[in-house]
Design a protein that fits this description.
Elements lengths: L1 E5 L3 H12 L3 E5 L3 H9 L3 E2 L3 H6 L6 E4 L5 H10 L8 E4 L5 H11 L5 E8 L4 H4 L2 E5 L2 H14 L5 E5 L3 H28 L7 H8 L8 H12 L15 H11 L5 H13 L5 H14 L9
Parallel strand pairs: 1-2, 1-4, 2-3, 4-5, 5-6, 7-8
Antiparallel strand pairs: 6-7
Helix pairs in contact: 8-11, 8-12, 9-10
Amino acid sequence: MRIGMIGLGRMGGNMVRRLVGRGHEVVAYTRDQTKVQKAVEQGALGAKDLPDLVRQLTPPRAIWIMVPAGKPTQDMIDQLAPLVAAGDVLIDGGNSRFTDDIARAEALQPKGIHYMDAGTSGGVWGLKVGYCLMIGGEPDDFRRLEPVFRALAPENGYLHCGSYGSGHFVKMVHNGIEYGMMQAYAEGFEIMEQSRYGLDLAKIADLWNQGSVVRSWLLELTALALQADPSLSRLAPFVEDSGEGRWTVEESINLSVPAPVIALSLLMRFRSRQSNSFGSRMLAAMRQQFGGHAVKEAGQ
């Protein structure tokens, strides 16, 4: 089938290639026309602007939006809404908050425009191994677009989760769990790195993927990172978050569900960005005041 793809970054560009490679026609657009031209060279149809993209699609149209969450996604939907027609479907494949999906679906309904949310996991490896897709929206829209989902995903790698927002809700929790897993791996490997044994961490990461109960794709990627840079000396200890971990913690509070591991892993990411924490200096000051403990002066 023919589908529009807006956003040709690391994820969107590879999704275009995967769809084209599996027999679908993709009309590709992003503001950077050099990326559009690259997609054309890989078999896609190029669009010079949004009206051109819409013209190249046959009703009922399907347009996949793969741009940053928040205002960029909302702006894109606002620009598309006057250009598309009743029966067309807009699919947000980014990392939007599920409550935004609900609001967008409700806003588009009076115009007859359909909306779906597709939580997408797979990163830069998705082109080769496929994208895990968590999909929300109307069942009829899911069935109509299932050939696209099937082409993007590995075998059994996509699921209609429920109504609007459910796909991004499941993806949000998925990423919250990911935070906790990553933090546990990081702590365990640091304990081994600081030990007396001079352990080969890359070999241990690979070993643990051979039948161990802690084996995972994250551990496979850990092994690759350690093989490339055993001391990780090329990296700064700064860990960003894209929002889903925060939203998972907020939702756990809203639902009164205790989630201490996910919450603490999020807080550790905040801590990684503080090169000279006031809180840590305060701890040192208090220890000096009540116990006369030695402190280090700034710059030492």
